[in-house]
Design a protein that fits this description.
Elements: H1 2-22, H2 27-30, E1 32-33, E2 42-43, H3 46-67, H4 74-96, H5 102-120, E3 124-125, H6 126-154, H7 177-194, H8 197-214, H9 217-237, H10 239-258, H11 262-280, H12 286-291, H13 293-296, H14 310-318, H15 320-343, H16 349-365, H17 377-389, E4 393-395, E5 400-401, H18 404-408
Parallel strand pairs: 1-2, 3-4
Antiparallel strand pairs: 4-5
Helix pairs in contact: 1-3, 3-5, 4-5, 4-15, 5-17, 6-7, 7-8, 7-16, 9-10, 14-15, 15-16, 15-17, 16-17
């Protein structure tokens, strides 16, 4: 009976995460996304846009019923209560203006979805998550390969591209370069720890090429940031070797730059100019908002303020108190994943590397991009975070469940 119950409960999680992964695969074959980013695409019909919310509501409802019997520690209860408070406040904001504002619901919806189905889940094994990541990796590589081939041979443009320009961005099965770049960050951390030898080189090279094809400036800055942090750590461990390699790379880069053909330089200049235009759309009017802080600082504006900066939108739309709770939750998620990494077995650690890199990217990247409404990145981030925080990941080697196993002996369990 116990095994049947676990299977019955866990199917909700797998249905949820697979649905989130594949739902937007219609975009590329049907040429549906946004007519404003590609002359060959049409805007996605409202019914398809709304479909992803409508179709997961039954999962949320079933999960909510199952949650009634699921225990949580005090720490987990506090986190769940904070999320529930954000949900209630968002609903109040959505209905509190002159007309219903769905942006407030959209911002919190996938956090709600993730909390409910992970809470209802008994446990998810490392082996099963590895299989899902492998599916994600292969599915992404195949989709990207097909899109690049079709572009080269018949000029088929993806969603973010203009004919005759160099600004052609490939977003794989999501047809969303920014979203797929975040997925690749998750897979980058996992693949680095999971594979070895030639297979690691092959997989990481594929991820690297895919990242370049997304032309995501945000992810490039993030990788530079990670490289600097990694370099500082290595300098502390092996200063002479690292500095020697750094000097060699520096002079090699100078030689490479001096010998770049003029045609390549022209392409790079055009690409830089295109990215400059795109960067202007990510600007946040901080100076203007500082002068009007009494209007939004406590409760936020009555109408949701849409900016490219996710944290900026949250700050002025929800006010400082709710923004602080939201930011604190994301920081707790990332910190919990980091702590789980150090407590995990060698087999489990690649999983946490991927989760951590995605979480840190979500946290930092939201300064210039609104990941809270970028589906399915938001759903996958919150699903992975709640798996760790609610202690749902089972490590077969140590037969331990992260986070809650450690706290089980010192915290009593509470039921809804």
């Amino acid at each position: 009976m116990e095994n049947k119950e676990k299977r019955s409960n866990n199917w909700i999680f797998w249905w949820g995460i697979i649905f989130c992964t594949v739902y937007q695969s219609y975009r590329y074959p049907l040429k549906m996304n946004s007519a404003g980013t590609s002359p060959t695409y049409s805007d996605t019909p409202f019914l398809i846009q709304a479909g992803k919310y409508i179709l997961v509501i039954p999962l949320i409802a079933i999960s909510s019923i199952i949650c009634y019997r699921k225990p949580l520690t005090m720490k987990q209860w506090l986190i769940a209560a904070s999320v529930m408070f954000l949900i209630v406040f968002s609903i109040m904001k959505a209905f509190g203006g002159e007309k219903f504002d769905f942006f407030y619901i959209e911002t919190i919806f996938w956090m709600t979805f993730a909390l409910s189905i992970v809470w209802a889940t008994d446990s998810i094994s490392i082996r099963d998550i590895d299989k899902y990541f492998l599916f994600l990796l292969i599915y992404g590589f195949i989709a990207t390969f097909i899109e690049v081939l079709l572009f080269i041979f018949i000029g088929r443009l993806p969603a973010l591209a203009y004919e005759g320009g160099v600004y052609v961005r490939f977003g794989s099965f999501l047809d969303d370069p920014n979203g797929y770049a975040a997925i690749l960050i998750l897979l980058l951390g996992w693949a680095y720890g999971r594979f070895y030898g030639k297979m690691r080189i092959f997989v990481l090279a594929g991820i690297g090429i895919s990242l370049i094809l997304t032309e995501s400036f945000t992810v490039f800055l993030y990788l530079v940031f990670l490289g600097v942090i990694w370099g500082l750590i290595q300098i502390y461990k092996k200063p002479i070797q690292v500095l020697t390699v750094a000097v060699i790379i520096f002079f090699a880069a100078i030689l490479l730059i001096r010998n770049i053909p003029q045609s390549t330089l022209d392409i790079l200049r055009d690409l830089y100019a295109a990215k400059q235009l795109s960067a202007h759309g990510h600007e946040f009017p901080l100076g203007k908002l500082i002068t009007t802080w009494p209007d939004w600082s406590l409760y936020g504006y009555s109408k949701f303020q849409v900016y490219e900066s996710g944290w900026g939108s949250d700050l002025v739309s929800f006010g400082v108190p709710l923004f602080s709770i939201d930011l604190a939750l994301v920081c707790i998620f990332v910190g919990s994943i980091g702590k789980a990494y150090f407590r995990a077995s060698d087999r489990a650690r690649p999983l946490y590397i991927g989760f951590f890199l995605l979480g840190l990217y979500y946290l930092l990247g939201s300064l210039v991009f609104d990941f809270a409404v970028n589906f399915p990145v938001n759903a996958i981030f919150f699903l992975s975070s709640f798996l760790v925080v609610l202690g749902k990941i089972t490590d077969e080697e140590s037969n331990a469940i992260t986070e809650s196993t450690i706290n089980h002996s010192v915290h009593s369990h509470y039921h809804v």
